[in-house]
Amino acid sequence: MAPHGDESSDVAQSESRRPISTVVFIIAMQAEALPLVNKFGLAEDTDSPFPKGVPWVRYHGSYKDLHISVVCPGKDGALGVDSVGTVPASLITYASIHASQPDIIVNAGTCGGFKIKGANIGDVFLVSDVTFHDRRIPIPVFDLYGVGHRQAFSTPNLLKELNLKIGRLSTGDSLDLSTQDESLIIANDATLKDMEGAAVAYVADLLKVPVIFLKAVTDLVDGDKPTAEEFLQNLAAVTSALEETATKVINFINGKCLSDI
Amino acid sequence: MAPHGDESSDVAQSESRRPISTVVFIIAMQAEALPLVNKFGLAEDTDSPFPKGVPWVRYHGSYKDLHISVVCPGKDGALGVDSVGTVPASLITYASIHASQPDIIVNAGTCGGFKIKGANIGDVFLVSDVTFHDRRIPIPVFDLYGVGHRQAFSTPNLLKELNLKIGRLSTGDSLDLSTQDESLIIANDATLKDMEGAAVAYVADLLKVPVIFLKAVTDLVDGDKPTAEEFLQNLAAVTSALEETATKVINFINGKCLSDI
Q1: What's the half-sphere exposure (Cβ side, CA atoms, 13 Å) at B225?
Q2: Which value, in Å, is the radius of gyration of the alpha carbons in chain A?
Q3: What is the CA radius of gyration of chain B?
């Protein structure tokens, strides 16, 4: 029950009753982002809202009644590979919230899945909640801070309408899986493993912006193929499945209020 | 040799020839920061330059000819512990550069040290260069991106004058040490282990701000005591050694140009 006479709660309620206007996608790899950029007819910013010299890329435009941005951390200046992982993801989430004041953030991307928890290659999951599995701080309370458990914004109607699979996501900065990572992922009871989600959730929580996660399974962590090989092999096909689901999500969101999704 | 007629190089040269005016300290724990805040007579901002709601704390003031800020990520909103680790450190580095446009960043804090590499409890090191040890991405080039090797700003005169120990720092988000972390720290040939340095270096490099690192050893990673216990036991005494060295560094920097330190 909402407290009576709470001004900030009234503001939050009236906010949640106007249609969603601005959506920011945070996507780590440009190969994951481009199908969405093309689908929504977005164009790369000519006048970037980000500081000079950063490799961050924002694609921007209108699709139906929505202002949509797709923001990627871009290519590492020295090495030319996508700037994957929690640090670039947290920075672009912070800078994108500042630049676009979105009503909702969608962190979309590929991930590893656990077949023992029901994940298959090509599945696109809506994430229920997130944790970290590589921030071990064995001091009371700091241990919980390290795990960093956070709920995704609750979207019961979206979940039902699109008939998506739902599961917990655990985040770490490694593509491979150490013994300790595996123990913590099991302790976290996660179905999915990625390299950005919990960091995006952290920043969205800091700045009080609702965030949801669409994660498409490129590799089975508990399967029998090497992760890097399976990831690269499935990237293109799974990215296409991700684009399809993200389009359905955007079509569902269009014209609705936060409280209706 | 600098290229002739390169305008940006000329600007950089003239920048490096005016005295350093603004210094930002990035410090993860308030217990590490407060001795410096008191020493330099800084006051907490009443009108924070940071977004509403974030726990980040900036202490600010003038000391000799310098504008000094000490910025901490503050206490986690839900759990009340210091917001340690790479994600908050990268965010406050980014936001502090935006707010203060510093001439130089100093990332100061406690760390673990390897006695086999010459570290002792209470030593304060100047860091030569940084790496990550918990970003394993076994795909060519991505592997190097994960390690994220970066040089600290070169300060040969400071090093000589203050007679500091120098060593490589490796960063990860865990206080403990997994087998994989240990292998990578050894592969990285690091003397010191912390939870923020390489992330601060990453952001400083993105935004082209010189950064140096002062790291004081609270625990021996290859010693015989449990890390968390040794860390908590030595925190107060080692923080005092850190304050003493940071004061010497500031006194040395005062009145000098970047190219003279």
Answers
A1: 15
A2: 18
A3: 18
DSSP B193: E
Q: In this structure, what are the phi and psi dihedrals at residue B171, rounded to the nearest 5 degrees?
A: -115, 140
pLDDT band at B2 (very low <50, low <70, confident <90, very high): very low
10-residue mean pLDDT profile of chain A (261 residues): values are 45 72 97 95 93 96 97 97 98 97 97 95 97 96 98 96 95 94 94 98 98 96 85 88 96 96 95
User: Residue A81: its chain B contacts at CB < 8 A?
Assistant: 141-142, 145
Closest by Cα among B120, B76, B100 to B221? B120
Asked if A219 and A109 count as a contact pair (C-beta separation under 8 A), the reply is: no
Does the beta-carbon distance from B51 to A180 stay under 8 Å? no
Which stretch of DSSP H or E encloses residue A39? helix A30-39
- In chain A, which residues have their Cβ closer than 8 Å to the Cβ of B180? 178-180
Cα–Cα distance measured from residue B187 to residue B185, given in angstroms and rounded to the nearest whole number: 5
CB of B6 within 8 Å of any CB in chain A?
no
Q: d(Cα B179, Cα A5) in Å, to the nearest integer? A: 54
Q: Do the Cβ atoms of B141 and A86 come within 8 Å?
A: no
Using a CB-CB cut-off of 8 Å, the residues of chain A touching B51 are 98, 206-207
> What DSSP element (H or E) covers A31?
helix A30-39
With CB atoms and an 8 Å threshold, state whether A53 touches B208: yes
Mean per-residue pLDDT of chain B: 93
pLDDT score for B230: 85
Contact B84 A53 (CB under 8 A): no
A92: nearest CA partner in chain B: B91
Of B99, B20, B95, B22, which is closest to residue B61 (Cα–Cα)? B22
